[in-house]
Amino acid sequence: MAQVWLSFEEIQELFNCDAADARRRVIANQWERRRCTDGLVRTQVPTEVAHDFFTLRAPKEAEACPASANEFEVAMAALCRVFAEPPDAAPAEGVNEPRAFGLRPVPHLRLATRTNAGPAETGTYG
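-> structure tokens emitted (126 positions)
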């Protein structure tokens, strides 16, 4: 079972109460408390409380997401806004060519191939 640890601020948000009331609720329910490495005290809550917390947070996060179903189109539109280009603009001629980036082709370069036979099978070392 997954563990959900909430800070006292998150418990306040969930139960619409102040800090003292959140602390009293944690003590009354005997929920485990721990001080985390970031300095906040967090409480392990039962699954019902965790479900309520995530249900409360879900609509807020869903509204923040873009409406488009295609993430690529959303990312492309954001990049086009940043670079001030229309989304359907064709790339400049020769942009994908190696010379456009100051590179030149190397015709004599070959990829090395590796065989499964090791030095013991071939009789060569080095």
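Residues 32 and 66 are 38 Å apart (CA to CA).
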